[in-house]
Amino acid sequence: MLDGIKKWIAFLLMTVLSPCALAAAPILSARIWPAEDYTRLTIESKAPIEHQMLIIEHPDRLVIDLEGVKLDENLKSLPSRVNADDPYIKSIRLGRFKPGVVRIVLDLKTRVSPQLFSLKPVASYGNRLVLDIYPEKDAMMSLLSEPFPEKQEKKPAKPEKEKIRPITIVVDAGHGGEDPGAHGRHSFEKNVTLSIAKKLARLIDDEQGMHAVLTRDGDYFIPLHGRVVKARSAKADLFVSIHADASPAGKPRVPRFSLFPKEAPPRLRQGGSRSAKTNPTSSAGWILP
Ligand SMILES: [Zn+2]
Fold first, then answer.
1. How close is the Cα of 45 to the center of ligand 1, in Å?
2. Using CB atoms within 10 A as the burial measure, which of 30, 33, 102, 163 is most buried?
3. How does pLDDT run across 227-286, given as a tens digit for each residue?
4. If you measure from the C-alpha of residue 175 to the centroid of ligand 1, how many angstroms do you get, rounded to a whole number?
5. How far is the CA of 263 from the centre of ligand 1 (A)?
6. What do you get for the CA distance between the two ends of the chain, in Å?
7. CB neighbour burial string for 117-134, b if at least 16 within 10 angstroms, e if fewer
8. How many angstroms is it from 229 CA to the middle of ligand 1?
9. How far, in Å, is the centroid of ligand 1 from the Cα of 245?
10. pLDDT for 168-212, tens place per residue?
């Protein structure tokens, strides 16, 4: 009986989903944005794009397959958008790999550490498939993954106070780069959060026994997972994510804050977005929005 129902549901899903799955997702634009720390390739489309990535060596290449996409002028413009002095991309080739699948091949100048992820529409941006190409080892990541420096006592013989590890607070400036967050009349949330985060980090560092680590110190995007990785690498005791949500004109301004203590019971979570309240502790041990 249950099997019969399952088959019917599968059949209905196929009937409903097939036309959508087959329809090509129109590409709105394709661009390459070389930033200070990485190169970003963005493909903006009306609908989310199914995708796969392969990393190939000898020579180093990245292969991205886009499903349900037409090889249109926007995509064809990608090779001409590569800067000759891009530190990572030598050239881009693309073609129809098989029916309904466009394959993009990035010939690389060096080994890289790529991150491919999707962003939902926000403000004037549509769905975006984003490829961030970092050097093989992100400088900040490697710094954070180093063991916490223990201060060497010059006079070990003298029994002094027990060495106390400083409390590490990771200050996360929400959004960044292509993800501007909320829009004000003349401002973007990503800039507001960054300046608050830097000020907060300075205040924390001024406190004795406390140490602040920023997830980002410039205008670039880090996926949620990357923020968690940085917090864990820094062996953070507390993760503070700063956001500056917009409030409609005329509505009362309600200050909100979110606290994400490590593995705290749900009753300790304070404020935050609806998702923060409903999400259980993530597998990384952090409660995140
Ligand atoms: Zn935000």
1. 23
2. 102
3. 888 898 889 999 999 998 777 666 666 566 655 555 544 444 444 433 333 343 343 444
4. 6
5. 22
6. 40
7. eebeebeebbbbbbbbbb
8. 19
9. 6
10. 999 999 988 888 888 888 889 999 999 999 999 999 999 999 999
pTM (whole model) above 0.85: no
In angstroms, rounded to a whole number, what is the distance separating the alpha carbons of residues 135 and 112? Answer: 5
**What is the whole-number distance in angstroms between the Cα of residue 230 and the centre of ligand 1?**
19
Please tell me the distance between residue 269's alpha carbon and the centre of ligand 1 in angstroms: 18
Phi, psi of 25 (to 5 degrees): -80, 115
Name the more confident of 95 and 283: 95
> For the chain, what is the HEC assignment?
CHHHHHHHHHHHHHHHHHHHHHCCCCEEEEEEEECCCCEEEEEEECCCCEEEEEEECCCCEEEEEEECCCCCHHHHCHHHHCCCCCCCEEEEEEEEEECCEEEEEEEECCCEEEEEEEECCECCECEEEEEEEEECCCHHHHHHHCCCCCCCCCCCCCCCCCCCCCEEEEEEECCECCECCCECCCCEHHHHHHHHHHHHHHHHHHCCCEEEEECCCCCCCCCHHHHHHHHHHCCCCEEEEECCCCCCCCCCCCCCCECEEECCCHHHCCECCHHHHHCCCCCCCECCC
